[in-house]
Design goal:
Layout: E1 2-3, E2 6-13, E3 23-28, H1 33-42, E4 47-49, E5 55-57, E6 62-68, E7 81-83, E8 86-92, H2 97-107, E9 109-110, H3 122-127, E10 131-132, E11 135-136, E12 141-147, E13 153-157, E14 174-184, H4 187-204, E15 211-214, H5 237-243, E16 250-251, E17 254-256, E18 263-266, H6 272-290, E19 299-301
Parallel strand pairs: 3-6, 4-6, 5-19
Antiparallel strand pairs: 1-2, 2-3, 7-8, 8-14, 9-14, 10-11, 12-13, 12-14, 15-18, 16-17, 17-18
Length: about 300
């Protein structure tokens, strides 16, 4: 199906890091900003697909138009530009973070190696302010380029991005590119740092398994919990899940990792319904044990859903 030179795929698979889930009734691969505008003309509530790193699609698939930013226009990285002590790169929203980290290390540009082991494409990485023990993407963002659902383009300074823990101000716009400010450093030094961070992640997370990374956000305690933290502390969701006895818990082909309790891994026979039921069970057990309500970090797409997370 073609709409004004925009090809719409029918019953298209949606790749996710869980490697399970249903298809999109309609999927578009825009090659320009104008094509993104055409997508919104077709479906104003279109869902934007990055790398599928924190995404689970219901087994029945999704009826919203899915917009995949994997065309050449959105997977480019500019030539580096010097600006004072910084080196600025403009990176397309579809560029995968692991690839970009390797590129910047080879170029002798430091900073992103602290985010090693975090999956995702740059649009989603910035939108959720992805990060971990060694830093967050907000530490390097200078400007975010986006288009809203009325088709207007914006260049948004990082100071207006409202970055916080796993959030930003970009919930209802489509990020098309990001300008990052990095610092020159020795290549050997950066490779060593990248190796250290990667080794830590391999020791503490099920990197070789099919997983979407952390499933729940780290909560802030409303009341003190002995051995966990004081009121007002942001604590590890994985620790709460572990202490609630959920490590190794399994439903169908989905299971809570024995290595890191905030990871759910999937076997070949897993269904999205298994993961959803397991996440609900884990959240219920943590609530019953500690009175803490966990918030999902994994986004779930399903039919009739107008939420636009990716």
């Amino acid at each position: 199906m073609t709409v004004a030179e925009l090809t719409i795929e029918q019953n298209a698979p949606i790749p996710t890091w869980f490697r399970i889930g249903g298809c999109a009734d309609r999927l578009a691969r825009p090659e320009s900003i104008d094509d993104i505008r055409r997508c919104f003309d077709i479906d104003r509530d279109a869902h934007v697909l990055g790398d599928g790193a924190n995404l689970l699609v219901h087994d029945a698939g999704i009826d919203r138009l899915v917009v995949s930013l994997d065309a050449p226009a959105f997977v480019r990285t500019s030539e580096p530009r010097r600006d004072g002590a910084d080196v600025v790169l403009k990176v397309g929203a579809g560029v995968r973070l692991p690839r970009l980290i390797n590129e910047t290390v080879r170029m002798g540009l430091g900073g992103l190696e602290a985010l090693a082991g975090i999956p995702g494409a740059m649009g989603g990485i910035v939108r959720m302010n992805a990060g971990g023990a060694f830093g967050e993407i907000k530490d390097f963002v200078r400007t975010v380029h986006a288009v809203d659902r009325d088709g207007t383009e914006h260049a948004i300074d990082a100071s207006d991005a409202e970055f916080g823990y796993r959030r930003s101000a970009f919930g209802d716009v489509v990020i098309t590119a990001v300008e990052l400010a990095l610092r020159p450093a020795g290549v050997n030094q950066l490779r060593a740092r990248l190796g250290d961070v990667t080794a830590y992640k391999k020791r503490t997370q099920p990197m070789a398994k099919k997983s979407a990374g952390c499933c729940f956000k780290n909560p802030t305690l409303a009341e003190p919990i002995d051995g966990i933290g004081d009121a007002g502390d942001r604590v590890s969701a994985g620790l709460l899940i572990d202490r609630a006895g959920c490590k190794g818990l399994a439903i169908g082909g989905a299971s809570v990792s024995e290595l890191h309790a905030n990871f759910v891994t999937t076997a070949k026979q897993a269904r999205a319904a298994d993961v959803i039921e397991l996440l609900d069970d884990v959240a219920r057990r943590v609530l019953d044990r500690f009175g803490v309500r966990l918030e999902r970090e994994v986004v779930i797409w399903q039919r009739g859903d107008a939420s636009r997370g990716s």
